[in-house]
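Q: What changes when zinc ion is included in the input?
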Amino acid sequence: MNCEEVSRRLSAYLDGELPPAEAEQVERHLRDCPACGREYAELRQAAELLAGLPQETPPPAIAQGLRRRLRQRVALLFVGLAVVLLMILPAASVLGLALRADLPLWARFGFLLSGVCFAGALLIWCCQLLRRLQSLVAYGFLAGERTS
Ligand SMILES: [Zn+2]
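A: The predicted holo structure follows.
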């Protein structure tokens, strides 16, 4: 393992997150390379300093404000999901027009293209909403952890 590879793994090594074989390689390199050894010592010192800092709890007003904003965002998210669900029907009916045999081919193709674009936009929007929901859930758990 070279210096660059060791440098990329130092943080994981310090946290004990490396597989045993890799950790052994890093350890061996650290013994033989003074530059990487210094880098590791500095990293460990910084981690110890951070661990020694007192854990602050936010004032109640800030925690309340955060919870209120969290509730507002959850409500907006559900409104967004409801809108997506409502828009599925028009997207499906536009796609359904593409299947009508009595319409000219160019019109059916146009409806198909519009329906696919509409459905794609809904899918992208839905994915964004779900990603936001995921981060809100993570944030909600963190906020609950700190205030309880
Ligand atoms: Zn090195």
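Observations recorded in class: The mean pLDDT is 88.
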